[in-house]
Amino acid sequence: MVTRGATQQSSAPLNRRVVLDVIRRQGEISRKDIIDRVGLSPQTVANITQDLEAIGLIVSKRLRGEKARGQPPMAFMLNPAGGDSIGISLEPHRAYGALVNLVGDVLLRREIEIDVRDQRRTLAAMVALVRELAERASASERLWGVGVAMPGPFDVPAMSFVGPTAFEGWTDLSIFEDLEAATGLPIYYNIDSVAGAIGESLSGVAQGFESFFYLHLGVGLGGTLMVDKAAYRGARGNATEIGHIPIVPGGKPCYCGARGCLERYVSLHSLSEAITGDPDVELSHPELLALLERGDPRLDAWRAEAAACLRAAVAIIENMLDPETIVIGGSAPRILVEQLVAEALPLAPSVRTDASDTPRIILSEWQEDSSILGAAVLPIHERLSPRLDVLTPVEERAGIEVERLLGRKPRRINRF
Questions:
Q1: pTM (2 d.p.)
Q2: What are phi and psi of 386, to 5 degrees?
Q3: pLDDT number for residue 116
Q4: Distance between CA 377 and CA 371 in Å, rounded?
Q5: Could you say which of 79, 218, 248, 285 would form a disulfide bridge with 260 (CB–CB 3.0 to 4.6 Å)?
């Protein structure tokens, strides 16, 4: 499905977003193919691409060997120097940060130890990360903003504020208002699984799918259903919280108050606890890789139990939601995820058993960095998405910026 442009003059901001989105998804596309996909007139597309190129969001090249009346045959692609974005992924004991350009290349990456129970120090750490990464912003000096990904769910005290996979003591999220005030940059935050799913949809392995389920395997376990390229939120913004589905009757006590939740078996925290016997210890990636290299029997036992739970979870997701595929990303080492998925085979029968040739499970190419890159995508998604649900007054400043860059007087109606 391709988003179609609108013909009304007041829809100019939406049309620009639609054209930019088509260029981004195709990688390189001719003006003629843009016109065919978005349903706008040749002159409108020519004006939009001229504007987008003038402000440095896209670059063009002449197509050789093609002749056409009117506008010369051109192909367009995103400009890597069209602006940068900062992504921060927060976990209970670590913060990861990256500076990412418009096409998803990581320009600089940082990792620091934190204790999220101390919000004051966590804020100071994030401010330091943003300032260091912002110093390396591209020559365009356009920084779209800062995206922050963190474990969910939000505003559910029984699940949000207790246990080693949640941010204990975070009774509100005003820390992000403080981060915006301290850095002077727009801050966008979301649940890590939502950020990862958006990132995979925009720039990752799920670009070709309209609907898919994203499974975020990190310290905890999260999930997000993408429908028509948008994250399904549910009534309170916490839909598809897969980690807290009770999957083992009478199983391990979970920090949410239930027993046998999926996260207690399929997560890096559950692995660390299985290895150390201490629920307060989180193994680092180097420690996990060392265990994998020497074939620790405790890891083998965890993997067998986790694979059985993952096998059941895949069948539940497919039978309930019937996604095109399930994408697994997160901060877990890729080799660990590969082994876990291999051990979960063969998958249990479901409505997908005899479906298309699309694999039932696809691993993120960003494995270990998918949360950071997903976070970095948030500002770009919120400010450049063609979806009408993000054309809100909060984003009006993006339209003003475009008008300024084009040398025009800003119009309040014109949201980019």
A1: 0.81
A2: -80, 0
A3: 84
A4: 10
A5: 248
Is residue 328 domain-resident?
yes
289 C-beta neighbours (distance < 10 Å), count: 14
CATH at residue 323 = 3.30.420.40
Q: How far apart are CA 252 and CA 264, in angstroms?
A: 7
Give Cα separations from 62 to 19, 77, 301 (angstroms).
18, 12, 59
Q: What is the pLDDT of residue 156?
A: 64
> For the CA atoms of the chain, what is the radius of gyration?
22
- Give the residues of the chain that fall short of pLDDT 70: 1-11, 65-71, 138-141, 154-166, 169, 354-356, 385-416
**Domains held by the chain: number:** 3
DSSP conformation letters of 282-322: ---HHHHHHHHHHT-HHHHHHHHHHHHHHHHHHHHHHHHH-
Judgement on whether residues 105 and 75 belong to the same structural domain of the protein: no
Residue-wise DSSP of 323-355: -S-EEEEESS-HHHHHHHHHHHPSPPP-TTTTS
Range of the domain at 396: 9-79+390-402
Identify the CATH number of the domain in which residue 54 sits: 1.10.10.10
The pair of structure tokens assigned to 85 is 């974005």
User: Measured between alpha carbons, how far is 291 from 285 in angstroms, rounded to an integer?
Assistant: 10
Residue 40 — left, alpha, or beta (φ > 0 → left; ψ -120 to 50 → alpha)?
A: beta
Same domain, 266 and 351: yes
pLDDT for position 391: 37
Report how far residue 234's alpha carbon sits from residue 231's, in angstroms, rounded to the nearest whole number.
9
